[in-house]
Amino acid sequence: MRYDASFIGLYILDILGRPVSRIPDRGNVEFIDEIRLTVAGTAGGAVIDAAKLGLKALAVGAVGDDEKADFVLMTLGKFGVDTSAMRRVAGVPTSATILNVRPNGDRPALHVRGASDHFELTQADYDIVLGAPIVHLGGTGLLSRLDGLQSVSLLAEAKRLGRTTTLDLLAANASTAHLVLPLLPHVDYFMPSIEEAQDISGRSGPEDCAEFYLGKGATACVFTLGGDGAYYAHRDGTRRKSPAYAIDVVDTTGCGDAFDAGFITALHRRMDLDTSLRFAQASAALVATGLGSDAGIRSFEHTLETMRTLPVKG
């Protein structure tokens, strides 16, 4: 196949600044150390990290017809991502977020929904967007037109074609459960944060959440637990807890997307389960050492060495 993985869904321009202790009064100025522009979103952040990790990756999403779209497409291309399936939507802005990263790592956000709300796919698109052995759908909950029946149809067709499917969310909560749960019978790896998993299910803790989602049809759940690591549960009864790495955290923006990219890379390279979780954890840890969703990750080899040498939390 032409691609190793297809990354469908949410593409955002992130504008990040750190450290932001306060917003200055009136028209005053507060000086900070760093401002960055990055391509983010549950598909956009993951596809760039996957490309850095050596995958031939296809980006499938929407941008507007503004200067932000130019930056997003240019940056994707710079990292070797195929953008032929990206769409420019006339008359709307590119989805974008301003993130004020606090000294303690909190990152209150201001978001413009923009083009991602106008992105949709039809069966005529399936030959291209499902033309990879791994299909990642990222951003369910913030994809107004793609969410719902379009996403169900997309993932069902992916499974019919024998693809491995992965699913991650954004801004998901109990009110978006009706968008998420119908997807699960067509999902091999359901990969939300534990906070999202708890909010949607109403359950507490990774074990109870996993039982809920496996019962709704997911083949496997892979929950990111922040500083507590990751938790894996398969419907065949397999359970794994993987500890987090001990790092000095700069910014956690995009760590979940990096975890997705690392896990997808591990699937592509047919790593065993424990190594796959460690590699995904190492990818997320590297991103947390810098500002923005594409920080830290250099290459597959560097991430593999990080996985082998970075100490884990005790």
Ranges where pLDDT stays below 50 over 5 or more residues in a row are none
Determine Rg (CA atoms, Å): 18 Å
User: What's the mean pLDDT score?
Assistant: 95
* Broad shape: globular
Which strand order do you get reading across the main beta sheet? 4-1-9-10-11-12-13-14
Helix fraction, binned, reads 25-40%
Question: Structural class of the helices, strands and pairings?
Answer: alpha/beta
- Biggest beta-sheet profile: 8 strands, mixed
Strand content: 15-25%
Distance between the termini: 42 Å
In N-to-C order, the SSE pattern is EEEHEEHEEEHEHEHEHHEEEHHH
Number of strands: 14
Number of helices: 10
Question: Can you walk through the features of this model?
Answer:
Helix content is 32%, strand content 21%. It has an eight-stranded mixed sheet, with helices on both faces. Helix 4 links the parallel strand 9 and strand 10. The N and C termini lie far apart (42 Å). The mean pLDDT is 95.
Features:
314 residues, alpha/beta, 8-stranded mixed sheet, 4-stranded mixed sheet, 10 helices, 14 strands, 32% helix, globular
What topology emerges from the helices and strands here?
Elements: E1 5-9, E2 12-18, E3 34-40, H1 44-52, E4 57-60, E5 62-63, H2 67-78, E6 87-88, E7 96-100, E8 109-112, H3 126-129, E9 134-140, H4 149-160, E10 164-169, H5 177-180, E11 189-190, H6 194-201, H7 206-215, E12 220-224, E13 230-234, E14 239-242, H8 255-268, H9 273-288, H10 300-309
Kindly summarize this structure in a few lines:
The protein is an alpha/beta fold and 314 residues long. The chain contains ten helices and 14 strands.
